Amino acid sequence: MSTTLRPETPAQLREAVAWAAAEDVQLELRGRGTKRGFGRPMQTEHVLDLSALAGIDAYEPEELVLTCAAGTPIAEIETLLAGKRQLLGFEPPDLGPLYGGADGGTIGGVLAANLAGPRRVKLGAARDHFLGFSGVSGRGEAFKAGGRVVKNVTGYDLAKLVAGSFGTLAAVDMVTVKVLPAPDKTRTVLVFDLDDAAAIAVLVDALNSPYEVSGAAYLPTAAAGRSGVEYVRKAGVSVAAVRVEGTAVSVAGRCAALRTLFAGRGPVEELHSMNSAKLWREIRDVAVFLPDREKAIWRVSAPPCEGPRVARATGGDWFCDWGGGLVWLATAVAGDGGAAAIRGALAAVGGHATLVRAADPLRAAVPVFEPQAPALAALSKRVKESFDPRRILNPGRMYAGV
Amino acid sequence: MKMPTPDQTVLARRAEIAAALREIVPGEGVIDAAEELRAYESDGLTAYRQPPMLVCLPSTVAQVSAVLKYCRKNGIKVVPRGAGTSLSGGALPLADGIVLGMAKFNKVIEIDWANRCAVVQPGVTNLGISDAVAARGFYYAPDPSSQIACTIGGNVAENSGGVHCLKYGLTTNNVLGVELVLMDGEIVRLGGKHMDAGGYDLLGVVVGSEGLLGVVTEVTVRILKSPETARAMLLGFPTSETGGDCVGAIIAAGIIPGGMEMMDRPAIHAAEAFVHAGYPLDVEALLIVELDGPQAEVDDLIARVEAIARARGAIYARTSTNEDERQTFWAGRKAAFPAVGRISPDYYCMDGTIPRKRLPEVLARMAEMSKRYGLRVANVFHAGDGNLHPLILYDANQPGELERAEAFGADILRLCVEVGGVLTGEHGVGVEKRDLMGTMFNENDLNQQQRLKCAFDPEGLLNPGKVFPVLHRCAELGRMHVHRGAVRFPDLPRF
After folding, report:
1. Which pTM does this prediction carry?
2. ipTM
């Protein structure tokens, strides 16, 4: 019979994992369950519910660090930070709606999936803001790594490894993340009616400019037509979007400079405050642009200039962020869901594709994460064993046998 | 400093090993003459010296792979080395080990402007990357003070920082991919030109692993467009407290400067005497704050920072009005180490990080220690991120002074950990801070790190004696002491 264990203290967490290790019991680690469909389907006996390990431990705005329990909701953190005019620089996406569920994941979940929003191009991904943690390994041993200060190279940077490990290495109970000042103002420059090549050229020029662009996305016509932002939805053509953030005088100056840079490429429009924020939230959270519940959803990470070409390999609906380097793609679920076409196109340029959403049978039949070369796959397996030799923590969620 | 006991059976086979390595790396790729080996006996931490058994200088990935494979098969220890500028002894040789010098990997392979990255060999210098992309107005952001000499391979090993890392990040935030050769000769590629890892982020742990996990043979780094403009300010304060307050207030106001450095009175005086940067000599703390970015923003922020500084009690404020002046402001800070070298026969540079708000307390206790040890200390400080560089002044020719300086340094690092900070912000653990790891990490923490090491290098042949105070065998670390049924079913909420 399946049981849910819900530890309320780090000591209880350790006890739970130690028990599972001793009894060879496999555990599904869960925060608020908003991304349960992310990863390979698992058949674990028990759920380890980490959502009770929540709450702020220390917030030091002037030190730019926040320490909190891993089950703390992102929304709670964002509200707290906003009170001091700060934010999480990596702009964590909320993929809840993409899975058709409620929004509102936890900091632990976002770090476990290493999710990052549009600001990735300027400030890095979740892993770049993850300074330290404590948790329990699959051996049932409590351990910690990293620190509670923004600059630290003491010992291996295990926070990077745990970020994006989907709960397969450790059950994390406490995390320290870097926080940053929130910008005073945000504006977005839109360039309309570009083909893929022209859109990528606009994004490249923007990102290669000295104007400190903090978002660079491209919405082909179909995706743009679903935006909640009227300027974008009603355009009836494709839209390239470039965001700048900072002080009022700086933002105005950089917008003007970008408009000059884009002169002659296509019609240009500017979005301010509310509209700008809404558009980038839509881009960050994906669901608005790829709403078809029947479709499989892929997340492709590629060299930025190659994103659209990989996207076109399937004929599916798509859009891209990170200057083209992050492609979100909806494909028909028939056959392999487009896996061979996408991964074939990627093989020539480098990068990886993840089947982020699909019904269990497709996720069981198709590698959800990019298959690895043998030497790398063997190394990944040894790394897993070094943390979780009995494979009790989210077994097989990333790769079979890991 | 106790290093692993040399393996006499390996030493006895030295000639045979040299011959075997020459088979793999022909020509002048293997060094075995005692006088030539001496050039490799130390790195930037010159207090420790040990000539290696042999030096091997491969020039191809295939050679690196074959050398490591041979060494693994024959149980030979390997110490990878870039330019040998480590300040923590990361490249300190072993008597029974080879030094694997990567200097011949010195080519820029590709600059991909559209994807904003450069693919380089590990022996390219840090500054060499910026130079290679400067023509089109780009640069590579991390800028350790040894950037003219240190290599990107060494930067990857140490996760090097610099004065700009508060805003632009450390090496780890600016590297997109590496090609890595494992101890068994396998070659793996981690990352690439794309922006995140597929599978485990092994790149994230390889960066900063101090040469213990593999040998990097290619690096892909992010390049950035140079800021439109940069201006620097000198801000003088009557006390270190007011200087520290000002740093906190600038950040609290939502401003992340490109660089924010602090110097104390001894460092200010030494630097001014050396390079005549125009520093005020009647202040206890000097801040150099650099704002970079679009022109309009920089002008705006300069005014805001000056207002904050005045409100926080600055008694001196000057803003650079042209590029020459900006460079002059920095000249003193950048020459701080050699400047201190002029007022003392030797100095020992520390590297702890603290929560910035604890600065006044840490400086006060450091001053007490200075009295107790009878050694002067000058402080330069990456103020924005709390990374301290106390320079302990001593004279190695005076019996016992080096030992006193080391004990003083260890006390400073213990203090950093005690106030919530860490042992090293950017120089690495190496041999220098190895035996202090236990002040920050317990046995579980260190064992888990060593288990990760076992996944890469199960025999512990890569750079042993660095980072970890006690070396365990992988088999011992892997053992699990669980007894079925002995652990009680946890008494916790269930549904």
Report:
1. 0.96
2. 0.97
